[in-house]
Specification:
This protein has 584 residues and is of the alpha+beta class. The protein is 51% helix and 10% strand. Strands 1-2-3-4-5 form a five-stranded antiparallel beta sheet, with helices on both faces. Strands 13-12-14-15-16 form a five-stranded mixed beta sheet, sandwiched between helices.
């Protein structure tokens, strides 16, 4: 299979609009010919990242991070470059199936490979035993829960029997005991024994789809054990970096425009039964930075669908704040009567579960209801506290129509007047503005302090990017730059023009892996120097570079003259120095 050529990569890049792609992850605001956004690559409180639809590049004028659509996806989602290319190809409907692409799975540390192999083997063994006589009762339990063979196959559900099958299998495969114990699948005691016995097994996968752990569930009333038993954390399984079903939902979540977060894997399976395939589970843990980074890869909109009991509602409140602070749009599926998704499906059916999912509350609607239910509205101090809490939330809204809507709701719920609510919100807004960080000033270099030779090379590169004729003049008359980075950039530009007439910066950087080079190209392309009326300025830049060449050569000859004691060599060096002076 052929590898992706630079021409094909450019075709993929040109199949989408960078504004549309970045706009699916960040709120954008039109400003002149460009768009601006809060920069996600540094601690930004004012829009400092500019996105150019004309050039198809982005750049932050504070942290100077920039690039094309591939760069943004790679750095924002923290994925390999080739994964970003695949994503853009998918968005732009460019068929790359016939090309040889790098594997999606990262190269595995050889120390970790035995752990992955043991988990993969365990999954196969558990899958096998679910279809044996030993698992008759377990299979009946699954049938009673309406978990079909198709669901069993999709979610790779298995069964762990009582006879320590993993230990025996691992010994036959010559895994050492240290690795067995480290995997968490075998408990360290005397000769060891299987952690999971007589349980229905649900494999847990990492983001790339490799099995890294398990959750085992009891299925008989006579089993006096914890309902669920999970793998301990290991070198390959970290709870805070794992979302159940994540590796399956990518395309479904992107098509739906949102991802659903549930508490447990039975909730994910319940939604799957109802035809909803864009759900993941946090498996009883709080949301972590690792979870947020995974979610960002799929969508900026999240539906929280945690249990409807008090513990679930408390967890929802905490999750809302975590997600909002990370820049997500948050909606809440308000589950009725203390039920979870699996219970709604079982007691009320598919139609009711679908209806609940399709009418989510805004995060603020949920907060207003949550705190209202938790407040004794007959007590003045409690009612006042409720007012202050919700007023703070309303003051954070940027849309005045949304503000007015929630102010009206707060007036009805709290019993306080519109005038009082308006004053509170104005106070909160004033405090936010006063305590906000002042806008950071872009770190542009002072033109006067910039070395004239560096400036000549930099400005020449800008004009080379904008005009093929300038690039050809540089190649013919100079062909060299002293700054190492600029010299490499110039060679990339010349090579680009051998194939094209007009240079697209977004395409130029597609073939460059060095991030420092990419950032320099983006910065230079954004200089906005005046248009040329003639070639005089270009000739001046080239003369300045030549002047630097002569100056450096003179310094080298002067040093050589001081270091030599041979009269003939001295005479020759002096002759060369005089010749250089004649050129000045």
């Amino acid at each position: 299979m052929p590898r992706l050529s630079s021409e094909k990569i450019n075709e993929i890049r040109q199949s989408v609009d960078i504004v549309d792609v970045i706009g699916t992850y960040l709120p954008l605001e039109k400003k002149g010919r460009n768009y601006v956004a809060i920069c996600p690559f540094h601690d930004d409180s004012h829009p400092s990242m500019s996105i150019s639809p004309e050039r198809q590049i982005f750049m932050c004028f504070v942290c100077h991070h920039g690039g094309n659509v591939f760069t943004f996806l790679k750095d924002y989602l923290k994925i390999p470059y080739i994964e970003a290319v695949k994503m853009v190809a998918n968005i732009g409907n460019v068929d790359i199936s016939k090309y040889n692409l790098e594997s999606r799975v990262k190269p595995v540390d050889q120390k970790l490979e035995p752990l992955y192999r043991m988990h993969d083997e365990a999954n196969k063994i558990y899958n096998h035993y679910l279809n044996t006589k030993l698992a008759i009762q377990a299979k009946e339990y699954l049938n009673n829960r309406k978990i079909t063979d198709e669901i069993i196959e999709t979610f790779e559900i298995g069964y762990a029997p009582n006879n320590h099958v993993l230990l025996k299998a691992f010994e036959k495969m010559n895994f050492n005991k240290v690795s067995m114990f480290e995997s968490g699948l075998i408990i360290e005691a005397s000769n060891g024994y299987d952690r999971f016995t007589d349980r229905i097994m649900f494999p847990l996968h990492d983001a790339s789809g490799r099995v890294v752990g398990f959750s085992g569930r009891i299925y008989k009333q006579s089993q006096n054990e914890s309902k669920y038993m999970n793998s301990p954390e290991s070198s390959i399984f970290i709870k805070g970096d794992t979302l159940y079903n994540y590796h399956r939902v990518g395309e479904e979540a992107r098509q739906a425009g949102y991802i659903i977060i549930t508490e447990g894997f039975m909730d994910v399976i319940a939604l799957y039964k109802a035809g909803i395939k864009n759900a993941v589970a946090i498996m009883g843990t709080a949301l972590t930075h690792g979870h947020l980074n995974l979610l960002k890869r799929l969508s900026k909109t999240v539906y929280l669908c945690l249990d409807g009991d008090q513990a679930g509602r408390n967890a929802t409140i905490k999750s809302i704040d975590i997600l909002l602070s990370a820049g997500f749009i948050v909606k809440v599926v308000d589950l009725p009567d203390n039920l979870d998704p699996d219970e709604i499906l079982d007691k009320r059916g598919i139609e009711e579960l679908n209806a609940v999912i399709k009418r989510p509350l805004s995060s603020l609607d949920f907060k207003m209801n949550y705190y209202y239910e938790m407040t004794n509205m007959d007590n003045y101090e409690d009612r006042k506290s409720y007012l202050e809490t919700i007023a703070r939330e309303i003051s954070r809204l940027d849309d005045i129509i949304d503000q007015d809507h929630y102010i009206q709701q707060l007036e009805k719920k709290s019993g306080f007047s519109r005038n009082i609510i308006d004053q509170l919100i104005n106070q909160n807004t004033a405090v936010r503005i006063e305590t906000a960080e002042p806008p950071k000033i872009p770190k542009f270099q002072n033109q006067r302090l910039l070395d004239k030779y560096i400036r000549a090379e930099r400005d020449l590169l800008y004009y080379m990017m904008n005009d093929k004729n300038v690039a050809m003049m540089y190649e013919a008359k100079a062909g060299f730059m002293f700054n190492d980075i600029y010299r490499i950039i110039a060679s990339y530009i010349i090579d680009y023009y051998r194939q094209e007439v007009v240079l697209e910066v977004a395409d130029l950087i597609s073939s460059i892996e060095d991030e420092n080079l990419v950032q320099n190209i983006i910065e230079i392309s954004q200089l906005g120097l005046p248009k040329l009326k003639d070639t005089k300025a270009i000739d001046d830049y080239i003369e300045t570079i030549k002047e630097k060449t002569v100056m450096v050569k003179k310094e080298e000859l002067t040093k050589a003259l001081a270091d030599t004691f041979d009269p003939k060599q001295k005479a020759q060096i002096l002759k060369e120095i005089i010749a250089l002076k004649d050129k000045e």
